[in-house]
Design a protein that fits this description.
The structure holds two protein chains of two kinds. Chain A is an alpha+beta fold. Chain A has helices at 15-23, 89-97, 123-132, 140-145, 152-160, 176-189, 245-254, 271-277, 284-287, 290-293, 322-325, 359-371, 384-392, 400-416, 435-451, 459-480, 495-515, 552-569, 588-607, and strands at residues 64-66, 72-74, 85-86, 135-137, 169-172, 192-196, 216-220, 227-231, 236-240, 257-258, 294-301, 304-306, 334-341, 343-344, 348-356, 378-382, 425-433, 455-456, 484-494, 523-531, 535-545. The chains are: A alpha+beta, B alpha/beta.
């Protein structure tokens, strides 16, 4: 299905709303075991193109532009940054990646029906589908919108070229039964199904295999977005797979609950997608990752519906089949309904930040926090490059006083504490829980931090830090306009290898760029975004100015491949939560061993011998032409 | 002036002639009018300063020192000293503390505690003792003091010390980006002194130098060297795991943090023979493990080639090779070596080679992911990595060889070794000129000043090496006997004295053997052929066999035999030494012959010429020595098991040498080199390598006995390439193998 792009929203489903809800004084409703939750329209319309950009990230109304004064401004009014001017950003861009504002690479105009290939229609299938009454469309833009995720090369194709293959039909099943029907028909008529949730994949998972001769339908789950029931006794909710993260959290909040699962793509990604990719949420320290959250999954496969017969917290019944479903990336079937754990809304949500003299001491601190198991809901550590970037994103300082305070802060850090601004690293924190819990945790974390030379950096900086992630997603589109290609990728690593891994990977990226003739210094930066007992998740951003380079996307992919090789050599994993998709297939067998790979293929062979779910991801062999 | 020689002409001719003549340097040429070298006076050799201070990208770094105050140089500020970008400043004491508290040492202590029941405190104390013995105490103060002293010594010994400055600039850049391993050739004690001095001169960080224990014993110098960055390692530490752990961590932590560039000699020890030794891989493996385990983004290896016109230890080496024991390293011995200071040792060339990146070198050859499953502090280098390290070590030695500066004297020595009964200067000039051209053709850099006549150059070099030769009144050059300075009782035996002179001259010839060895293997094969023609396949077979026989004495990169062979054929063909006819009779065959180049055949007779003869003869002593080894082995009496009596390798070497002395006494052979213990030992190693020896372990020593049939076969093979003694060998050994023959020596 789709993948999570780590890019936080701020504002839409921020915990501040959650706090507001409880603060509004709604008493928690008396416990009901099957509380119905009324339907609400999804935030993302059925015709996605009405709200979302056709060739970039996010909402049409929100983007970075160069305003009439030549400064970067963020448009719209959805985000905290919306409508603000960032006076330092332009200089930062030209300094770090060599952007020249006179050198533009505008995207091609929006594709029209004439540019989009004719659908390859299997008449018998469509005939039967029509009879079933399930909604479908062969509208060219509907199809194009579901032909891709947000992997660099996909967006680049939208801006500059044409997809070789796009879905031939978009189908919107309305419920589990509809899905069963569609899968049955597809099997009968040998039609390929590619499930589509929020479309935020960054692994090429949504792309149609270009060699596919059969009809391809995109099974869009967006019309299956209901919360079927909320069980306050067992603290679970049964939801349809297509519900978008922000809708799920908002509607649960109205009832006084949350799932606490907040991947950075929460504005756009769907519950089914989270399950299909083994998603990770930023507050996993309290709520857990998706594998900790799901209680029950229904998945429709060509063999029939796969599910367990009970709603239990844990079961010993052989290898856990949930783990076959989670991370299957749409290769085995469609997840239709998920029963997920919910929690009462926390009393307090509080941001924080810590400034470290360097990245190394920051990592040591995070490790100690993990070792003592006192991590707040979220703790993330930015390296110096990202700190600089965050700084460049600061909006105009309104008043004299504000700028004076800024100056004082800087003076304190550099002069009194003796920190080097080109070395410091910043951790952002998010605490959740009861008042006492939060203040006790805060105290503990800051205490540990001080042992590693860290000093508290204030709430405001913490909150800004969480905004940073999501901003990069939008910022990439601005980069595209000025010869910049950029992308992010992640990994997980044992604690003792985190630092070496970060240093080696950055070094490798910079060196490969140099050796491959990139004319400008690349931007390579990383963050530690999750902590575990045994290790951490590390997130890299990498972009470069491709002026003078003939084939930027190919070059980018080659370098990212090198970076991944370096990550693997440094003891890191193939992926922490983005998944394999198509772009990381080459390392899968090496990662899971030959028997492991065979096992995955055997599962595929049994559940889907016809390769109906033929999106070409994960263990599906690249078919010969 | 010869045309091909022009390539060695200094780029900047003007700078040469206008370079000022420093007053000190006039004393450098100590042409003593009463010695046998008095013939040189009429030629009026030019002053040292006529040697260019800058030539072909080489810059003399002594020149400035001859013109300013050494004290100023010693105390000046070092600017922009490059540091590894991830370096965190630490003192030598911090490094020691780190090692003792490292996971690796802790783990080893735990392990040994479990295995040996030694208390942890005791083990830690042992670790600390090892570290105290090992660690350097690099301090700038000592370095400055030492530099002051070194500059005086160098100015005394050498005319010029040339450094390729481009290499220095590159090194400066590299030192900032990645940890650096400096890997110089090792032919003299001067090597590390010179390299450290070069670093001081160019404001580069001083290296930490892996040194052998021998120095540690020297009272003052042991201490001084330690403070100038030397750290001491035992020669072998087998299964002393604690030593391994301390050593590995000590090396790796300095590399990881980039405390100092790490310097070590891949040849393991000073080459006594002046040719590259077969590389050792221990230090390299310990250093590169950090990269294999992804503790470092990369490591840069810098091959450094240090070429001497004349080696300070030349006669010491010769006597050591003959088995006359070397004095233990001591400060007083060093002071005695002061007599050395009164001699002229010509010029030194230091070439800092292109960095070799382990990342690039290992790309696609190893899988670093394999190290993901265990803690990185447990020593483990897998088979692929060991193979890679071995290939790399050979590669590095080959890189060092590529940049050796060939002194005219080396070429002359090669000629003298083939004319030991004497050669007129005029002929030497002619021959040297010819050999120089061959060296150029093989890509060597010959230090052949373009502004001097060949005659001048030859006479200069004769003067520089007047200790081993005499020039008679009628301009005949003869070798003279060298008396060892350090042996108290004089050696009466003329054989040994002759051998010493021969070994000294041979050692300079050895400086060019790496150039010619591949061509020579072809030449030997062709010249030993009794047929009219020879097919390429047959030639390659012979070549491969010879390569195997000579592989302990010369550095052949493993797995490169075919490429080396093809290149040798090509270069011989192009210089007209090898006549090859394509094996076709009809014009239509041309296309086919291109497709199968091995169809070409060598015209043996036409290929019997000056080139092939000269090259063949250059390597004859080596093959003869191996042959003598075989003969001795075949004469060993048979024990009750029907096998020749086993002997220890060192006894075997001595016994072979005895046989060799007898052969020389009887004038049965003429190459004194076969007395070299190094050569004999390599012969034995080779025989072990080709599987003709049985090995036994007794009391931790290896006892060897030959497989007579196999050894006889090797002897026959070798015999085909060389001129054998005219007297039957059995006169010297024993007629039958069952007889015990006691050499009367």
């Amino acid at each position: 299905m789709e993948e999570q792009r780590e890019s936080s929203k701020d504002g839409v489903v921020s915990p501040s709303i959650a706090v507001a809800a409880t603060a509004a004084g709604q008493p928690p409703p008396s416990s009901l075991s099957r509380l119905p939750v009324e339907d609400q329209p999804s935030s993302i319309p059925k015709r996605r193109q009405e709200l979302l950009k056709w060739n970039g990230w996010g909402y049409k109304d929100s983007k970075f532009i160069l305003n009439k004064n030549g400064h970067v401004e963020f448009t719209g009014e959805r985000y905290r940054l919306s409508g603000h001017v960032m006076p330092h950003l332009r200089e930062w861009m030209s300094k770090t990646v060599g952007i020249d504002l006179d050198q533009k690479t505008p995207a091609q105009p929006e594709l029209t029906a004439a540019d989009i290939p004719l659908p390859n229609i299997n008449d018998a299938f469509v005939e039967e589908l029509k009879r079933s009454g399930i909604s479908y469309s062969d509208d060219p833009t509907d199809r194009l919108f579901r032909a891709h995720g947000h992997t660099l090369h996909e967006v680049f194709v939208l801006r500059e070229g044409r997809f070789a293959r796009i879905p031939d039909l978009v189908v919107w099943p309305g419920c589990h039964k509809d899905v069963e029907e569609v899968v049955k028909l597809a099997g009968k008529h040998n039609v390929v199904i590619i499930p589509f949730g929020g479309g935020t994949s960054v692994t090429g998972a949504l792309e149609c295999p270009s060699h596919e001769k059969r009809m391809i339908i995109s099974l869009d789950t967006s019309q299956m977005a209901r919360i079927l029931w909320l069980d306050e006794k067992n603290l679970t909710a049964c939801c349809e797979c297509g519900i978008i993260g922000q809708d799920l959290e908002r509607r649960l909040t109205e009832k006084g609950y949350c799932t606490g699962h907040e991947p950075d793509s929460i504005e756009f990604s769907s519950l089914g997608g989270w399950v299909a990719t083994r998603a990770s949420g930023m507050k996993k320290n309290i709520y857990g990752n998706i594998e900790d959250l799901v209680v029950h999954i229904k998945m429709v496969t060509p063999r029939g519906t796969l599910e367990k017969s009970c709603l239990v917290p844990r079961i010993s019944s052989g290898p856990d089949l949930h783990h076959v479903i989670m991370g299957s990336e749409g290769t085995l079937g469609v997840v239709t309904e998920v029963t997920i754990k919910v929690r009462p809304l926390p009393e307090v949500c509080k941001y924080g930040s810590i400034v470290f003299p360097n990245f190394e001491s920051g990592v040591s601190c995070l490790q100690e926090v993990a070792r003592q198991r006192v991590a707040p809901a979220s703790i993330r550590l930015m390296d110096n490059e990202q700190f600089q970037f965050g700084h460049a994103l600061k909006p105009e300082v309104g008043s004299f006083l504000a700028s004076f305070v800024e100056g004082l802060k800087k003076l304190y850090i550099t002069k009194i504490k003796g920190f080097d601004l080109t070395k410091i690293s910043v951790a952002t924190l998010l605490f959740e829980g009861s008042k006492e819990e939060v203040s006790a945790r805060e105290k503990k974390v800051y205490e540990i931090a001080s042992k590693f030379g860290g000093i508290p950096g204030g709430e405001e900086n913490g909150q800004r830090g969480y905004m940073l992630t999501y901003v990069i997603a939008y910022l990439r589109d601005l980069g595209f306009e000025y010869f910049i290609v950029a992308e992010s990728f992640e990994t997980s690593a044992p604690w003792d290898r985190v630092l070496d891994l970060c240093r080696n990977t950055k070094d490798r990226i910079i060196r490969e760029c140099k050796e491959r003739g990139v004319q400008f210094p690349p931007y390579a930066t990383c963050r530690v975004t999750q902590t575990y007992d045994a290790g951490a998740c590390v997130y890299f951003y990498f972009g470069f100015n491709y002026r003078g380079v003939a084939n930027p996307v190919e070059l980018y992919e080659e370098i990212e491949r090198c970076a991944r090789e370096e990550i693997l050599a440094s003891g890191g994993s193939i992926s922490h939560h983005h998944g394999i998709g198509k772009i990381r297939k080459q390392w899968l067998q090496r990662t899971v061993s030959e028997p492991g790979f065979g096992l995955l293929q055997a599962v595929k062979q049994y559940l889907d011998p016809q390769n109906i779910f033929g999106n070409g991801n994960l263990m599906i062999p690249d078919s010969k032409l | 002036m010869d045309g091909s020689g022009a390539s060695a002409v200094p780029v900047n001719g003007k700078a040469r002639t206008s370079s000022p003549c420093p007053p000190q340097s006039s004393g450098e040429l100590r042409a003593n009018p009463v010695t046998s070298a008095s013939w040189i006076n009429p030629d009026q050799p030019r002053d040292v300063s006529t040697l260019a201070s800058y030539k072909d990208s080489y810059q003399d770094i002594l020149n400035e020192r001859r013109q300013d105050w050494d004290f100023v140089f010693m105390t000046r500020t070092r600017k922009d000293v490059p540091k590894y970008k991830h370096h965190v400043p630490r003192s030598p004491e911090d490094i020691k503390q780190h090692v003792l508290n490292s996971d690796r040492v802790k783990y080893t202590v735990e392990r040994l505690h479990g295995e040996k029941k030694t208390s942890k405190a005791e083990l830690l104390k042992q670790a600390e003792a090892i570290l105290d013995e090992m660690a350097h105490a690099l301090s700038m103060k000592s370095v400055r003091g030492f530099a002051f002293f070194l500059i005086k010594v160098f100015k005394q010994l050498f005319q010029r010390v040339y450094v390729n400055e481009e290499g220095v600039q590159m090194l400066r850049k590299m030192m900032h980006e990645y940890p650096v391993l400096l890997m110089p050739t090792h032919r003299s004690y001067m090597d590390f002194l010179l390299l450290s001095y070069v670093c001081y001169h160019y404001d580069l960080p001083l290296p930490a130098i892996a040194a052998a224990m021998d120095f540690k014993g020297m009272k003052f110098f042991g201490w001084l060297l330690r403070h100038c960055g030397a750290f001491y390692i035992r020669r072998s530490f087998g299964t002393d795991w604690l030593y391994w752990a301390v050593f590995t961590e000590y090396v790796q932590t300095q590399l990881r943090n980039g405390d100092a560039p790490l310097e070590f000699f891949v040849e393991g020890t000073r080459s006594r023979t002046n040719k590259s030794y077969i590389p050792k891989t221990g230090m390299l493996a310990a250093s590169l493990e950090s990269y294999f385990k992804a503790e470092l983004p990369d490591t840069m290896m810098i091959p450094v080639t240090i070429s001497y016109d004349r080696i300070v230890e030349e006669s010491l080496y010769a006597y050591e090779l003959l088995g006359i024991p070397k004095p233990k390293e001591s400060t007083s011995a060093l002071l005695k070596a002061r007599s050395v200071l009164s001699d002229d040792y010509g010029c030194v060339h230091v070439f800092i080679g292109d960095p070799i990146s382990i990342r690039q070198f290992s790309n696609g050859k190893i899988d670093r992911v394999l190290h993901s499953l265990e803690p990185r502090y447990i020593n483990s280098v897998n088979k692929d990595e060991m193979k890679l390290i071995n290939d790399l070590a050979f590669h590095i030695v080959r890189q060092q060889q590529r940049h050796l500066v060939i002194s005219p004297w080396s070429l002359m020595a090669a000629i003298l070794m083939q004319n030991r009964e004497g050669i007129p200067v005029r002929q030497l000039v002619k021959e040297a000129d010819w050999l120089k051209r061959q060296a150029y053709n093989l890509g060597a850099y010959v230090d052949w000043p373009g502004d001097l006549s060949t005659d001048d150059i030859i006479r200069r070099n004769l003067l520089l090496h007047k200790n081993v030769l005499t020039v008679s009144d009628d301009d005949m050059i003869e070798l003279k006997l060298v008396r060892p300075g350090h042996v108290n009782k004089p050696i009466k035996d003329d054989i040994l004295l002759n051998a010493a002179t021969n070994l000294i001259v041979a050692s300079y010839r050895n400086q060019v053997t790496h150039l010619f060895v591949r061509d020579a293997l072809v030449a030997l094969s062709v010249n030993s052929c009794t047929e009219e023609t020879m097919s390429m396949d047959e030639l390659f077979q012979k070549y491969s066999l010879l390569e195997r026989y000579l592989s302990k004495d010369f550095v052949f990169q493993p797995g490169q035999t075919k490429q080396d062979f093809d290149l040798a054929i090509l270069s011989l063909k192009h210089s007209g030494a090898l006549v090859i006819a394509d094996n076709f009779t009809h014009i239509s065959d041309i296309a086919e012959s291109k497709a199968a180049p091995n169809a070409a055949i060598v015209q043996v007779k036409k290929s019997f010429n000056k080139h092939t003869t000269f090259y063949s003869q250059m390597f004859e002593p080596f093959l003869l020595a191996y042959w003598v080894v075989c003969q001795h082995l075949l004469s060993i009496p048979i024990d009750v098991h029907g096998r020749p009596l086993p002997k220890r390798a060192k006894d075997l070497t001595k016994d072979v040498q005895k046989l060799a002395i007898r052969l020389l006494e009887e004038n049965a052979v003429k190459h004194y080199e076969i007395l070299s213990l190094d050569l004999i030992n390599n012969g034995i190693l080779m025989l072990m390598d080709v599987g003709t020896m049985y090995k036994d372990k007794r009391n931790n020593e290896t006892w060897l006995s030959p497989n007579s049939v196999a050894v006889a076969a090797v002897a026959d093979e070798l015999g085909a390439y060389i001129e054998l003694p005219s007297i039957p060998i059995s006169n010297f050994t024993s007629s039958g193998r069952s007889l015990v023959m006691q050499a009367k020596l």
